[in-house]
């Protein structure tokens, strides 16, 4: 990526070089345009608040305060609350086993973080030097690139298709052509990716796992959406296939509530102590009170009852969006250059679409907002040159009626621009 222009420091303040690399999120800037009352938004990245288990949190909050208020409100261990780390380890073991793999996660390898976003920040601090080569999918999660860039890496996009990263492109990107420097890691989102909604196939996971091990290329596997599958669970995580070669990031944001700001990292023993030291320096520990509440809510298998309700809701929302798209863009698949095209995500919160030839999602957005609908253009999600025709549509927060209305408005905006 190109270096951003240096920030002009206000008098007397000499800003760090890394500050010049921090930019307002392009998406947040775009979203400002869309925050007009009455706009139907497919732009947000928020889970549906209908899924938050409010009564369970209320009961857990009271119980945590009643049972051990002194510990719940005191400073606590940087690694996280022991029972929560054990539940995380056990859940991952069970999930891998149901996909036919043995993944013995030691709770001692689990670090509770302040959202998985902090996991990304810690990974960057521990693994990235200025100039380090790091690999990302194309496109990728913008928040990860924002967490990595202050460490001044060279971010290299690896071509990716509907099944995930392209193996040949990966082989070529893993080592820098001129210097021979090996990439520090590949950051991957195998399940219901943000922004594309796509899922890495079993064959690609197997190939990537083997190839990364052969190349000695560590993998950073980010999996905040993996539990939100619609018809069948996704294939087993990459980390379960080679735990010593991967760092796994998980989150409670999409299965319980993002406001608690809790996630976790599972790291090999060779890296864990450094992540822990970085965590200590960052915030000592994630809120102990929140960790106890989540552990209280999760005990007795609550997620096994709760997560299926989120899956059912999001699946019906996805179906409504697919139905509306098919209705308003009947030519889609036969005429990809004349019409909008889109994928069918098997889980998660996002659908990825592509505009007709010669149209740009950034240019379309103000016209769509005028018609009453907002989306996020896809280009900012690419670490290199983005495809200007792409856009991300979130289907989880609007109602079914709003989804139909919003897709109709999108179709009207596209037709108008095509005619212009
Ligand atoms: N990774 C990805 C791919 C995400 O989409 C998000 C949230 N939008 C995060 C990480 C961070 O989530 P959290 O910090 O809430 O766990």
UniProtKB/TrEMBL annotation:
<dbReference type="InterPro" id="IPR015422">
    <property type="entry name" value="PyrdxlP-dep_Trfase_small"/>
</dbReference>
<dbReference type="InterPro" id="IPR015424">
    <property type="entry name" value="PyrdxlP-dep_Trfase"/>
</dbReference>
<protein>
    <submittedName>
        <fullName>Aminotransferase, class I and II</fullName>
    </submittedName>
</protein>
<keyword id="KW-0032">Aminotransferase</keyword>
<keyword id="KW-0808">Transferase</keyword>
<dbReference type="InterPro" id="IPR050859">
    <property type="entry name" value="Class-I_PLP-dep_aminotransf"/>
</dbReference>
<dbReference type="InterPro" id="IPR004839">
    <property type="entry name" value="Aminotransferase_I/II_large"/>
</dbReference>
<feature type="domain" description="Aminotransferase class I/classII large">
    <location>
        <begin position="68"/>
        <end position="409"/>
    </location>
</feature>
<dbReference type="GO" id="GO:0008483">
    <property type="term" value="F:transaminase activity"/>
</dbReference>
<comment type="similarity">
    <text>Belongs to the class-I pyridoxal-phosphate-dependent aminotransferase family.</text>
</comment>
<comment type="subunit">
    <text>Homodimer.</text>
</comment>
<dbReference type="InterPro" id="IPR015421">
    <property type="entry name" value="PyrdxlP-dep_Trfase_major"/>
</dbReference>
<keyword id="KW-0663">Pyridoxal phosphate</keyword>
<dbReference type="GO" id="GO:1901605">
    <property type="term" value="P:alpha-amino acid metabolic process"/>
</dbReference>
<dbReference type="Pfam" id="PF00155">
    <property type="entry name" value="Aminotran_1_2"/>
</dbReference>
<dbReference type="GO" id="GO:0030170">
    <property type="term" value="F:pyridoxal phosphate binding"/>
</dbReference>
């Amino acid at each position: 990526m190109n270096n951003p222009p240096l920030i002009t420091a206000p008098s007397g303040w000499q800003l760090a070089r890394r500050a010049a690399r921090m930019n307002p999120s392009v998406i947040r800037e775009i979203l400002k345009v869309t925050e007009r009352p009455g706009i139907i938004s497919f732009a947000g990245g928020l889970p549906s608040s209908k899924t938050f288990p409010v009564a369970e949190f209320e009961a857990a909050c009271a119980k945590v305060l009643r049972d051990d208020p002194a510990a719940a409100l005191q400073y606590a261990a940087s690694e996280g609350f022991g029972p929560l780390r054990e539940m995380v380890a056990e859940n991952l073991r069970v999930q891998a086993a149901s996909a036919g793999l043995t993944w013995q996660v030691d709770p001692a390898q689990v670090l509770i973080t302040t959202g998985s976003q902090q996991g990304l920040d810690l990974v960057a601090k521990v693994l990235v030097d200025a100039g380090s080569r790091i690999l990302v999918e194309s496109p990728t999660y913008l928040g990860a690139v924002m967490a990595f860039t202050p460490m001044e890496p060279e971010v290299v996009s690896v071509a990716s298709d509907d099944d995930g990263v392209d193996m040949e492109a990966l082989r070529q990107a893993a080592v820098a052509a001129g210097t021979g420097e090996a990439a520090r890691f590949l950051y991957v989102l195998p399940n219901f990716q943000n922004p594309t909604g796509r899922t890495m196939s079993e064959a690609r996971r197997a190939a990537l796992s083997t190839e990364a091990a052969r190349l000695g290329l560590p993998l950073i596997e980010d999996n905040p959406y993996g539990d939100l599958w619609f018809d069948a669970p996704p294939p087993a995580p990459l980390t379960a296939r080679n735990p010593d070669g991967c760092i796994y990031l998980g989150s409670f944001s999409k299965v319980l509530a993002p406001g608690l700001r809790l996630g976790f990292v599972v790291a090999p023993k060779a890296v864990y102590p450094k992540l822990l030291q970085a965590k200590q320096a960052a915030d000592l520990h994630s809120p102990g009170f929140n960790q106890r509440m989540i552990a209280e809510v999760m005990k007795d298998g609550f997620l096994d009852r709760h997560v299926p309700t989120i899956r059912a809701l999001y699946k019906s929302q996805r179906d409504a969006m697919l139905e509306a798209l098919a209705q308003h863009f009947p030519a889609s698949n036969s005429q990809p250059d004349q019409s909008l095209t889109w994928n069918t995500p098997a889980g998660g919160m996002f659908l990825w679409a592509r505009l007709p030839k010669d149209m740009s999602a950034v240019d379309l957005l103000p016209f769509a907002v005028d018609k009453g609908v907002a989306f996020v253009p896809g280009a900012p999600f690419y670490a290199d040159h983005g495809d200007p025709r792409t856009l991300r549509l979130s289907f989880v927060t609007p109602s079914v009626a709003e989804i139909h209305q919003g897709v109709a408005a999108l179709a009207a905006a596209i037709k108008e621009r095509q005619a212009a």
